[in-house]
Design brief:
The protein has 132 residues and is an alpha+beta fold. It has helices at 38-43, 49-54, 57-66, 108-112; strands spanning 15-16, 35-36, 70-74, 79-82, 122-123. It contains 4 helices and 5 strands; from the N terminus they run ββαααββαβ.
Length: 132
């Protein structure tokens, strides 16, 4: 019996979200680019509240890009894209447990998944791969 291949970049391969789906997931949603706003960066502790209020977002983005915390800043929309590891994982995803290390502080994008996103109500779910 074959395992269905899920391609996070192809929404048509995603699974409709249902209760308990995340229990057996391997955190595929945590391999997608995470777009955040300034309040998310403050909550994550990457930006000081004073800095957020008094410094231009472009300057903040430049600092965070240099520090390797942000990959991109969309000035027009005020959206930062968090940096990812070389394998595509979110910086805050534990490599062993595949669980979020900042769950209580996670960005709004993550809090609202899968209600919002490329395919609302669906998730790039994929069962854990085991060797054997």
């Amino acid at each position: 019996m074959g395992v269905q291949h899920v391609d996070v970049d192809r929404c048509e391969t995603w699974t409709r979200y249902r209760a308990g789906l995340c229990d057996g997931c391997h955190a595929h949603c945590c391999t997608m680019p995470v777009e955040v706003r300034l309040p998310d960066l403050v909550r994550l502790g990457l930006v000081d509240p004073f800095e957020a209020e008094h410094e231009a977002p472009k300057q903040i983005a430049r600092r965070l890009e240099k520090a390797g915390r942000v990959d991109h800043f969309n000035f027009k929309h005020g959206i930062f894209t968090l940096a990812r590891r070389a394998n595509g994982d979110c910086l805050y995803l534990d490599a062993v447990t595949r669980r979020c290390t900042v769950y209580e502080k996670r960005p709004d994008t993550c809090r609202k998944h899968p209600q919002v996103g490329p395919r609302p109500g669906h998730c790039p779910y994929g069962p854990r791969q085991t060797s054997g």
